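EI: anyone free to look at a 437-residue chain?
SC: sure, send it
EI:
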Amino acid sequence: MDSLDTLLSRLFKLHRKSIELSLGRIERLLAALGSPERRLPPIIHVAGTNGKGSTIAFMRAILEAAGKRIHVYTSPHLVRFHERIRLGAIGGGKLVGDAELFDALRACEKANKGEPITFFEATTAAAFKLFSEMPADYLLLEVGLGGRFDATNVIARPRASVITPISIDHPEFLGPTIAKIAFEKAGIIKPGAPVIASVQHEDALAVLRREAERAGAPLIAAGQDYAAREEHGRLIFEDERGLLDLSLPRLLGRHQHQNAATALAVVRNIEPDLEHSVFERGVTQAEWPARLQNLVKGYALALAPEGAEIWLDGGHNEDAGRALAQAMADFEDKLQKPLVIICGTLATKDTGAFLRAFKGLAQEVLAVPVTAEQANSARDVAAAADMAGLRAAACESVESALRFLAVRDWRAPPRILITGSLYLAGEVLALNGTPPQ
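SC: here you go
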């Protein structure tokens, strides 16, 4: 009999070398499963380039603080596939278990009858089956790629659509301009469902406004209908319902203030009567691995120079690079602690654009390979860093890079940022012995 790992491996081989954006295959599979997408709890559908996962983490934390049962679907996973599917329960949800995941995937494989299907389509269908069989108050549903033809976009009536910041990413599938990418993301907008948009480039906002008007969907836009700012070490959020004076988010970086603000705007729209304490608990308790995650224990930290800090982030595009560089620059002791970047990227990403924001901030870049298809070699990453104006060297692995740093003499322990790919972040969490729970 198949094991779960065998089944996942077999499914992963389906169309895994190409992405074919279409809804026909998953619609056929869902019909064969009895249309579970029609029996889901109220859905908050989330698209965008950066910040989707963090915004979902804030929404989940706030809604769970209000006593709600929350299903969550995100991708990709970092260490184990189970991270993609969180099943809601009173008092907090849990990642899907082996037995229930196996049964759902096997049912999808059987219903598909060998017809063309992709890994993401098959696993999305399995998630919908699981979510339809367990009651919850909301399903937080993250788009995999784009929006218009993403497998998650088979849903007809979301409770709300959310568009996080849009920038250039996956241009080979979504188009080469902000406007074209925004058009694909706007494909999740549905008639009558409110659209909550994070801070956007003006070209993106123009497209979202146009598509919302076409669908008859009210648009709630950051900077116009809601806003957040840091004031005296507090997060101040304002919308038409009034002001929230909250502690700063648990997730670090100024960009997380805007992700938290988007989550607050969504929840205030769908649950207008929640108490202030619910929002306070939510923004201070939200967790999202590999987003400026400080590794305070584990094998990786033991390899690093004594007293060093290790920060882990899966950022991989130009906007993410700017946000991470800003977060590193915001450390009050940045002049005392030299910043070293350990970076691995995919060949489909613009490594130079990602790293450019660290020029003048990072002492050097140690380039490493990533265990993934279409990954850059360490030499290629080092060359891109050099072209971006950063001193760089290639290493065989994250482990060898940390050992290389450990034998140096430091005037002060370094701050080490490991970044460039979610695949790399997953490798580091596995190496460190601290996978997401």
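EI: The radius of gyration is 21 Å.
SC: 👍
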